[in-house]
Design goal:
By secondary structure, the protein is α/β, with parallel strands linked by helices. It has 23 helices and 16 strands. It binds one RNA strand of 75 nucleotides through helix 6, strand 8, helix 8, strand 13 and helix 12.
RNA sequence: GGCCCGUUAGUCAAGUGGCCAAGACGUCGCCCUCUCACGGCGAAGGCAGGGGUUCGACUCCCCUACGGGUCACCA
């Protein structure tokens, strides 16, 4: 077989040689230890939590080592390409704080190692593929889909491992005449890698996260160029990561199964292998079993879910970081105000087993993150969320910014800030009673209290309320009202002899709270009244007295 | 089914042969307290099972079970 001749009749239009290409991709000039990573999605425009898990890892690894993090678009499958897909990916990640140094941008490329869209790299792949043909490492296969299906059926019925290998690799040793005959018919063909491997050969491979793993050599002649001349993922991965100088390939552990093939490819192409970091998967509990989180079945898999629910970006980052590096939480506890960039990210602290996404934990993290924000930050982020999701609330917020800030300032700052907001979508509920337009009475005073007593207490309050009093004066007044109406002003005394009183100062406070806020629970009542203003306070009290 | 990965409390996990197996979330209780939230204290709850190796195994080896992944001209 004249391999040079075969290469020429298969890909006559390819005149470039690997050396020509190599010359266009000089080695990167980076400091020792700098890591070059990439995020390489299909342009479906859809990102799920697992993508973010990987993207964060890529980003941190590159940026904590003085390296480069770039975006490559794997658009070799037309079915996975949607309009604006790239823009959506860049925007979504940008909102989550993941910024690229290099690679595909919305309307082109940024960087010297492009093109960064695989669809624009056909000539490059074909150049290397042609070289493999010359070296006898690749060959054309003219099997139709039906023929492949029938091979598979035959294998299944005989309980053999499915695949194009050994005796099933029917075109592997085809003669030049057979090939030429097919070409003369204009029959479509794929290019397959000629595997010299055997499943009898086992070897060890070192993964940066998993550690030493056992691999079995690949003996399948996988497709490297599809019939349209576009590469499969495997071939594109080898060529691109080589040319673009990727030092660390971070990908989902489901790629572990094709790793043996990738090892072969790098060797056959004469490329130095990058380091591999196969990450554990983000799982979800389904009928008592853990399973890979699914973008089709699980709404919380989509990144847009967190955005629309109103989780702060910082909270999602923070939570994901706790999953990514097991010592992150400890570090955060010791450095509550440090920037996430100061954390020493390492693959050594990455879990080898899949972890369940825990919304309870996310909520807790989010409450902590929000509790550390200023009222102004909370206002801005809530408003931004409301503008997208609740226009009415947004206009309420905008109607009086200072008023909103005062509300959001309650219990904020200091050593023990309130931690009651986890989502921007919850803020409306927390704030509603401060606005006449949103106010509604959710709770009422329990029936066990005598209506006359309630009215007496409220009337008493109405007559004595002084909006200028400070907090202790205010509370002393509440106690005085309690006492003069037969309610115990002192909780300890009340608990010792509850039968002596109609109730306690706690009950009196509750009457006031329900009258003023319409709820059993609220932040500090004095502060609430200060913000509401005397007119609203007294008006609402009057409503109850009737 | 073949191959590969994994298995410490409900969840996330520390642990790398040697004190009664950290911590966080969640749950429950108590305290603080005018309610809620915060905060403090405490409780319940775990090394999948079986063999080895060893003076000694959560840690090393083997087997089993269970879970996950992958076996495309998709990535």
């Amino acid at each position: 077989m004249d391999n040079n001749f075969l290469a020429d009749i298969l890909y006559p239009n390819i005149k470039t040689l690997p050396a020509d290409i190599e010359a266009r991709y000089p080695a990167r000039n980076l400091q020792e230890g700098a890591k070059v990573t990439r995020f390489a999605p299909s342009p479906t425009g859809f990102l799920h939590i697992g993508n973010l898990y990987g993207a964060f890892t890529d980003e941190r690894l590159a940026h904590t080592s003085g390296g480069v993090f770039y975006l490559r678009i794997e658009d070799t499958d037309a079915k996975r390409t949607v309009p604006n897909g790239i823009a959506i990916i860049i925007e979504t990640l940008g909102k989550l704080g993941v910024k690229f140094d290099e690679g595909a941008v919305i309307d082109g490329d940024n960087g010297a190692y492009g093109p960064y869209r695989q669809s624009e790299r056909a000539e490059i792949y074909q150049t290397y593929a042609k070289q493999l043909i010359r070296e006898g490492k690749a060959y054309p296969c003219f099997c139709t889909e039906e023929e492949l299906a029938s091979i598979r059926e035959q294998q299944e019925s005989q309980k053999l491992t499915p695949g194009y290998y050994g005796e099933f690799a029917v075109w592997r040793d085809a003669s030049l005449e057979q090939i030429q005959a097919k070409l003369a018919e204009n029959a479509p063909f794929v290019l397959r890698f000629r595997s010299e491997g055997s499943i009898a050969n086992k070897m060890k491979f070192r993964d940066e996260i998993k550690g030493e793993i056992d691999v079995t050599e690949n003996d399948v002649d996988h497709v490297i160029l599809k019939s349209d001349g576009i590469p499969t993922y495997h071939f594109a991965h080898a060529v691109d990561d080589h040319l673009m100088g990727t030092t660390h390939v971070i990908r989902d552990e489901s790629w572990l199964s094709t790793l043996p093939f990738h090892i072969q490819l790098f060797k056959a192409l004469g490329f130095k292998m990058p380091k591999y970091c196969h990450t554990a998967q983000v799982l979800k509990l389904d009928n008592g079993n853990k399973r890979k989180i699914s973008k089709r079945k699980d709404p919380e898999a989509a990144l847009t879910y967190y955005h629309s629910q109103g989780y702060p970006v910082a909270a999602v980052r923070e939570y994901l970081m706790t999953l990514l590096n097991s010592n992150f939480e400890e570090w955060r506890l010791a450095n509550p105000d440090a920037a996430i960039e100061d954390f020493k990210f390492t693959t050594k602290k990455m879990s080898v087993s899949g972890s369940l996404f825990d919304l309870d934990k996310l909520n807790d993290v989010s409450k902590n993150v929000i509790s550390r924000m200023t009222a102004n930050e909370v206002y801005d982020l809530t408003l931004a969320w409301a503008k997208e999701n609740d226009a009415d609330f947004a206009s309420v917020l905008e109607s009086d910014k200072d008023y909103a800030i005062r509300i959001l300032s309650i219990g904020r700052g200091g050593k023990k800030p309130r931690k009651d907001i986890a989502l921007w979508s919850e803020v409306k509920g927390y704030m509603s009673f401060f606005y006449d337009a949103l106010f509604n009475r959710e709770d009422s005073i329990p029936d066990k209290f005598n209506k006359e007593d309630i009215c007496a207490v409220l009337a008493n309050f109405k007559d004595t309320y002084n909006a200028n009093a400070d907090q202790s004066e205010w509370f002393n007044n509440v106690k005085a009202i309690a006492e003069s109406n037969g309610f115990c002003p002192d909780m300890k005394a009340y608990k010792a002899n509850p039968e002596l009183y109609k109730g306690s100062v706690a009950d009196v406070s509750m009457f006031l709270r329900i009258a003023v806020t319409g709820r059993m629970n609220s932040p500090d009542l004095y502060e609430v009244m200060q913000i509401l203003g005397a007119e609203r306070v007294l008006g609402r009290v009057a409503e109850i007295i009737g």
